[in-house]
């Protein structure tokens, strides 16, 4: 009969043993103590801290007004539709780990390029295709290309910052999307192969509806997303479209309603009531188009919930909303707390930023990439920010690095990506973006100072 080990006699030994027996309680205790100490030592009452807190609130307030209804809600709806109507086998055929690489990366990059969305709006769409079986490489190429390569951003960059910098951004972003996707695929190829085998069991790769219907269904929703968020820019062509953005959005919405009635079998009276509610909201409050937009999306999801064959669409959209929305709002607040809004200051003084990126050296370029990775840029706002920094002495190399890293990454973006593909992959992806932006910006700054 073996003798049991005597319990540790020392006080510290007994504490260590008790902690090992109750790891969850130790984690809770550590969290409580850490939060208490953080609150206890907050520099509340100091001008910089109080202003930084206000900047965090103001940025979150601005984000809620400008991006949640028009950007995120339709993105959640599209992502939910991907999960409900795109068969996993079909996604794997064209975007999966075993799909032909030119096809997979080409489709991911091109579809991302056409969206013209910010680093947060692309997240539900990225989560949708990744969950349905898209390979890590193509999914990451889509994740980067959406906010980084869109045609509008490239044109505005060339118009405001010069053709040379606009062309450098376009070439760099296109190459980044493919290279980062390929590197992620190669690093995790074994894991991706195992995931492909697991996801591929029991799926025949056929779409639930004819390809033409599916393509039109998603094309109309993407059209609504793009034109509802069409930003003002210093270009007569873009402003001509901007002047008619809501009329164009209404045409896409009308065609989408017709498709739901004719091909999805939705009752005419339900769609008509929803259309009437949207028109009524637009007429009663013409200065707040977000109200009519929100009424349309909420009504769409309510009708889908009442239909057995479409309920999964609403459920999947709600799942994405619950997973992503809280993290985005927390991330936007923290970004505002640290860096403030454009033209305003958070905890980090703006003079530090200007001094840190004031030449074409490697350190300045790296800091510009790193800073851009944590800042939040909505679509096209990175251009006037970089213009202001260049006016304050920022070098061309750091400017390009900021343009390549900033729109594709942000603190709220990182928090959400982690929930979709895990901590390690998120760190690798963010590191690749920062490193490649640094190297590209540094090379550009040395060749064209």
Low-confidence stretches: none
Class by alpha and beta content:
mainly alpha
- CA radius of gyration: 24 Å
Give the helices and strands as they follow along the chain: HHHHHHHHHHHHHHHHHHHHHH
Query: Whole-Å distance between the termini?
Result: 80 Å
DSSP strand (E) fraction? under 5%
Any idea what the shape is?
globular
Largest sheet geometry: none
Q: What is the percent of helical residues?
A: over 70%
| Topology, number of strands | 0
Count of DSSP helices? Answer: 22
Overall average residue pLDDT: 85
Notes on the protein architecture:
- This protein is an all-alpha fold and 449 residues long.
- Helix content is 77%, strand content 0%.
- The protein has 22 helices and no strands.
- The protein has helices at 11-21, 23-40, 47-85, 88-95, 101-113, 122-131, 136-149, 151-161, 163-187, 189-200, 211-228, 236-243, 245-262, 268-284, 289-306, 311-339, 350-356, 362-374, 382-391, 396-405, 411-421, 423-447.
- Helix 21 (411-421) crosses helix 22 (423-447).
- It is globular.
- The model has no long low-confidence stretch (mean pLDDT 85).
Q: Which keywords apply here?
A:
449 residues, mainly alpha, 77% helix, globular
What's the short version?
The chain is mainly α.
What order do the helices and strands come in, and which of them pair?
Layout: H1 11-21, H2 23-40, H3 47-85, H4 88-95, H5 101-113, H6 122-131, H7 136-149, H8 151-161, H9 163-187, H10 189-200, H11 211-228, H12 236-243, H13 245-262, H14 268-284, H15 289-306, H16 311-339, H17 350-356, H18 362-374, H19 382-391, H20 396-405, H21 411-421, H22 423-447
């Amino acid at each position: 009969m073996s003798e049991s080990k005597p319990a540790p006699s020392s006080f510290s030994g007994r504490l260590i043993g008790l902690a090992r027996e109750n790891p969850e309680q130790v984690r809770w205790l550590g969290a409580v103590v850490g939060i208490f100490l953080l609150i206890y030592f907050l520099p509340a009452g100091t001008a910089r801290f109080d202003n930084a807190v206000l900047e965090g609130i103001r940025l979150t307030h601005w984000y809620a007004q400008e991006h949640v209804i028009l950007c995120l809600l339709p993105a959640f709806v599209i992502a939910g539709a991907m999960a409900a109507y795109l068969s996993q086998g079909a996604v794997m055929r064209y975007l999966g780990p075993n799909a032909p690489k030119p096809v997979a990366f080409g489709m991911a990059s091109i579809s991302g390029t056409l969206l013209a969305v910010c680093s947060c709006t692309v997240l539900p769409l990225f989560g949708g295709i990744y969950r349905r079986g898209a390979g890590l490489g193509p999914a990451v190429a889509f994740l980067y290309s959406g906010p980084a390569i869109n045609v509008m951003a490239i044109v505005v960059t060339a118009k405001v910052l010069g053709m040379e910098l606009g062309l450098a951004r376009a070439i760099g972003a296109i190459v980044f999307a493919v290279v980062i996707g390929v590197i992620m695929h190669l690093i995790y190829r074994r894991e991706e192969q195992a995931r492909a085998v697991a996801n591929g069991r029991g799926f025949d790769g056929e779409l639930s509806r004819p390809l033409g219907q599916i393509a039109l269904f998603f094309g109309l929703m993407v059209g609504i997303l793009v034109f509802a968020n069409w930003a003002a820019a210093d270009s007569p062509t873009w402003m001509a479209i901007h002047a008619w953005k809501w009329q164009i959005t209404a045409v896409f919405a009308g065609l989408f309603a017709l498709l739901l009635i004719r091909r999805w079998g939705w009752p005419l009276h339900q769609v008509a009531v929803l259309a009437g509610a949207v028109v009524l909201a637009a007429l009663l409050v013409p200065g707040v188009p977000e109200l009519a937009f929100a009424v349309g999306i909420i009504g769409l999801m309510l009708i889908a919930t009442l239909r057995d064959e479409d309920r999964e669409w609403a459920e999947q959209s709600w799942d994405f909303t619950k997973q992503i929305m809280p993290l985005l709002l927390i991330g936007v607040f923290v970004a505002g707390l640290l860096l403030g809004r454009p033209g305003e200051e958070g905890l980090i003084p703006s003079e530090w930023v200007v001094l840190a990126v004031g030449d074409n050296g490697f350190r300045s370029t790296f800091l510009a990439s790193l800073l851009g990775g944590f800042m939040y840029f909505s679509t096209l706002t990175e251009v006037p920010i970089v213009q202001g920094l260049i006016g304050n002495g920022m070098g061309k190399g750091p400017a390009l690095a900021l343009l390549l890293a900033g729109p594709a990454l942000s603190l709220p973006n990182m928090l959400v990506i982690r929930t979709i593909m895990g901590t390690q992959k998120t760190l690798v992806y963010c590191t690749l973006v920062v490193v490649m932006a640094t190297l590209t910006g540094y090379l550009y700054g040395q060749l064209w100072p």
